[in-house]
C-alpha cells in the first residue's frame, strides 16, 4: 500500500457516505455499515463551527482555545474524513 492510499480510501468512504445520505433509503451490500469516519466530540464541534463559516480565530475565541489548536484540529478532521477544504467539509456536514 502506498502512503496516499489510506487517505484516498478515507476520501472515497466519505464521498460514499455523503452520496448515501442524499439517496434516502439506498441499500446495497457496499453501503451496509458505512459511516463517516469517527470524529471526537471536540473535532465534531470545531468542524461544525468551521463548516458554519467561522474563522479559526473566531472558533478559538468561542471555545477558549488557541488558534493553533483549532488549525491542528481542523487538519486532523480533513485527514480523517478526506475533505480538502472548508467548503467540502460543509458539504459533508450539510451546512451549505
TrEMBL record:
One Pfam entry name: GerE
The protein's name in its UniProt record: Response regulator transcription factor
Residues of the HTH luxR-type domain: 32-96
Signal peptide span: none
Highest taxon, organism lineage: Bacteria
Organism: Nonomuraea salmonea
PROSITE patterns registered for this protein in UniProt: HTH_LUXR_2
Lineage: Bacteria, Bacillati, Actinomycetota, Actinomycetes, Streptosporangiales
Keywords, alphabetical: DNA-binding, Transcription, Transcription regulation
InterPro entries membership: Sig_transdc_resp-reg_C-effctor, Tscrpt_reg_LuxR_C, WH-like_DNA-bd_sf
SMART domains (UniProt xref): HTH_LUXR
Amino acid at each position: 500500500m502506498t502512503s496516499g492510499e489510506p487517505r484516498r480510501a478515507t476520501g472515497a468512504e466519505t464521498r460514499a457516505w455523503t452520496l448515501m445520505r442524499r439517496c434516502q433509503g439506498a441499500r446495497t451490500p457496499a453501503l451496509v455499515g458505512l459511516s463517516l469516519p469517527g470524529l471526537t466530540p471536540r473535532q465534531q464541534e470545531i468542524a461544525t463551527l468551521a463548516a458554519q463559516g467561522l474563522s479559526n480565530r473566531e472558533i478559538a475565541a468561542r471555545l477558549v482555545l488557541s488558534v493553533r489548536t483549532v488549525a491542528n484540529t481542523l487538519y486532523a478532521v480533513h485527514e480523517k474524513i478526506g475533505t480538502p477544504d472548508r467548503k467540502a467539509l460543509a458539504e459533508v456536514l450539510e451546512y451549505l
